[in-house]
Every structure is written in structure tokens, then in C-alpha cells.
Protein 1
Amino acid sequence: MPFLPVWDLNPLKRVRFQYVTASLIAINTAVYFLLQSDLVFHVPPGFTQGLALLPRYVLPLQALLQHIPRLYRLVTYMFLHANVLHLLFNMIFLFVFGDNVEDAMGHARFILFYSICGVAAGLVHCALTGAPDLPLIGASGAVSGVIGAYLLLHPNIRVWVLVPLPKLPVVPLRFSAALVIGVWIFYQFGSAMLLPSTDTAWWAHVGGFLTGAFLVILMRRRGVPLFDAATGI
């Protein structure tokens, strides 16, 4: 990615605290360090493989019917990560954008929203991947749904991002959420089209993003506007 968002200066308006967002970050972090990193527990080598999503279990329809008992993986894959950087980047994006989406929906609806986005992202990946035997793990699809919802809710909010510049250290700059997220989704879609053979699940990101952008229209609380005119500080 050409940048990393770190802060959005967008205060909560309807909930006191983003309990679901914080819990998701805590759960993902705990799963990785307790069960995947070997720093605390030495779990069997097949632990991640057993909870990851395998596209060949989902599509075509015949495979889906044959592997119904394994469809729990459409949920469990969201809480696994390949390494610390994979976890860190997903959790930073969730930290920056998740609280305000949770604020717009309420805690219970946000849990449902996040889960649906993750499942939809997994299904899109399974439909379009060229590597049906490569396991899919990571919260990226669900977090992409959060990013899509944020774009429709707060496109004008200013977001601080870290931008690496040639021959200079990483520089913090501030842009509108519409610009930051627009560049992000363009990067995801372009990578999905041009780099289909990589290990990154680009189509899961695109699928999650589109799902989140659609669902926020239906799942936001009554009275919560789309395309909020506020610009932040």
C-alpha cells in the first residue's frame, strides 16, 4: 500500500465507546499471539489450516453441498493471520474506521454487519480465485466492508495517513476520507485485475468493500445521514 491511515479525528456521536470494534481487535490479536505465533501455546501445525477457508469447499455448488459441515470456516478464517504485519495492518484499518461505523449502526447491528461482510468477501474470493487449494485467512475482507461503509458515511472527514516519500522518512499527511479510501479501493481493484496470481486475496477486499457500502445504507440507525458534510478538525 502507498500509505497507512492512522487517525481520523471523528468523534463518536451515538455510542459511548466502540466496544465491538475494540473486542474484535482484542480477539484477533489474542488468537494470533496465543494460538498462531507459538509464543504462548504450541498448537498443532494444522490448526490454522483447519480453520482457514478453502475455496474448493465452497464453489462450485456441488462442492458447497458436499462440504456444508465445513462452512464454519467462512467465519473462522476472519480471525486468523499469516504474520504480525498482516495482523497489524488489518487492525489499524479497523481501529481507524470501525468506531464510527459502529457508532452509526449500534453495537448489535455492527456485529452482524461485520460478519456478513467477512462471509461475502470469502464467497467472492472463492468465486474468482485462480488458486482453489490456497487457504484464505485474515480479517481483510470484513475490514474492507467497514472501509466501504465509512466512505458512504463520512467522505469529507480528514484522515491522517503515513506516506513514504523517496529519500525521506515516512511523513504524516492529512487527506479527506474520500481520497484516502478512493485510492485504497482503486489499488485493490487494480491489483485484483493485474496481479491475480499473488497470495493476497484482492477480490476478497473488493467484495467486502462493496458489501459494506451496500449494507450501511440498510443497517445504519434511523436519522444517520449518508455523505456526512462534516470535515473533522
Note: The longest helix spans residues 84-105.
Protein 2
Amino acid sequence: MRRQHSDIRPSEITSERVYRSRRELLKGLALALPALATGCTRAADGDAPATSAPAPADGTAPLAVAKRGAFSTDEPQTSRQDATHYNNYYEFGTGKADPAANSGRFRPRPWSVEIAGHADVTGTFALDDLLKNHPLEERVYRMRCVEAWSMVIPWVGFPLANLIKRCEPTAKAKYVEFTTLNDPGQMPGQRNDVLDWPYVEGLRMDEALHPLATLAVGIYGEVLPTQNGAPLRLVVPWKYGFKGAKSIVRIRFVEKQPITSWMRNWPQAYGFYSNVNPAVNHPRHSQAMEVRLPSLARNRRTQLFNGYGEQVASLYKGMDLTKLY
């Protein structure tokens, strides 16, 4: 007979060291992510995730922002209208207007995220628990698409490194893999075979720990609209925009480099690193110049690492960035 979740002692689920670590987190350390402080046990099979009031689908609920994040740019910001109505999000269609048009019925709450792989703290956690009492920052970053258009967007989120450190990855964790929701009922774009679903992305561990790498829950001071990746997405501003996995449901610590969705779909065009590099052309077009929306003129010179070279170039010292694209 299968025992109920409540009958299983924590010491039977995890090692004593991890159990005691969780007990310490329960004391409410100031910098702890509360999901790892209050919810660090695996959900029993069949348990429903914690619920909360649904967030407005159009992203109009305000968020409390504690400060502006490091490395934020002072460049003029793209309008909210453009940033939320000109998107690549193939789960809702391949046209730029499709995400806004087709995501109105998507339900971003309740939501849970699985933490898996080579880490001491794993399990399935309600998103609200992951975020509770965690200070959010406004992080204004340049974002560039491989199609040669760019925007400046004020994201609201926190460093991905904060979550990673609380998960206590083991020495085997060399990469972080992100898996997004696979739900054709809510995501009509997944009813075609433009990509293998679910969408998978990945970062090398040192990339994921870099302070620029962000888990975003908002945009323009409000919760993420569904067309921008609600309720949780990745933002990596020195890479092309497709590295920003949207609607994340699993974060897994792995030893081998993940095969990401676009690598699988078109490896000649999309490598694992996908750093912005104007010297490496896409098979269909040059990357040397770009359009800064809402302009229609390709008159802006593309910057290596999207202009964040001073912060991230050391991550790739000695690598051939024309081959490891």
C-alpha cells in the first residue's frame, strides 16, 4: 500500500545534510528564495500546485520594484506597445503579431516549476513560493533578435544566479537546461511541427551564474503579458533573443551540453552559445547591421555581445566565436 505524503519523514526523502539545510532555510534567511525556504519537499503524485489569484492576461498588474539592476542601459526604451505586439513566440504562431493575438486564453496561474538534475535541492515548487518576499529589480537591457531587429526593454526580475545558488548544484552540474510548457490546447502554434516541442534552451553554468542573466516575471513595471512569456522567462541580453525561454516549467542541472530546440531544428544557423556576433552571418542575412524598433531602417551597427562585452567577454576567452556560435 502506498503511503501518503504526510506519512513520509523528511529524512527518508533527502539526506540529513540537505534536510538540515532546509530546516535552516525555514528560519527565513533574508536572501533566501522562499520556495526553497518553505516548500523544499517534492509534491506527492496527484497533488495540486499551490494556487493564487490569476494574473491579468494583458499584464496590467503592477509589480513592486525594489531597485534598478546593475548594467541597466540609459538608452531610450522601446514603447510598451511595440515590445508587447512585435514578438517571436512560436508556441502562439510564427507571425510577429500572432503571440498577442493568440495568447489571450493562456492561463499563467497557477504555475509550478520543477527543479531537477544534479542539485541537492530539487522538487516541484509553486511559482508564488519561489518569488515570495524576493526583491525584484528593473533591468533595462538591449535585446537583439537574430532577424536583425532590436529593442530596449525594462524587464522586472532577479538574477538567475540567486535561484541556482539556493538549489545547491553539485560538481556534476556543468549546464542549466530550461524546458518550457508543452500544451497545444493553450498554445495553438504547438499544433504544427515548426519545432520539436517542448521548447528547450540551455546555458553553461558560468553563463547562468553571470549577474546579467535574469529570470523575468514582469515588463514595464507590470506582470509579464502572456505574449512575452508569462509567468516566468529567461533573459540573457548578450545573446540573441531566442535564448530567452518563455513560460518555463522545468530547470534542470545537467552534466552534458543540452541539445536546444533551435540547434536541433537548424544547427547550421543556431549554435548552442548564440552570442550576438556581427562577424557571424545567419545563412540568410548579414548580422553586421540592425534595426532598432520602431525604426524601419537597418542603420545601427551591431555590437559584439550586444554591447555587453565588457561584462561577459571573459566567459569566452580562448574560444573561437566564429565556430562556437
Note: The first helix runs from residue 10 to 13.
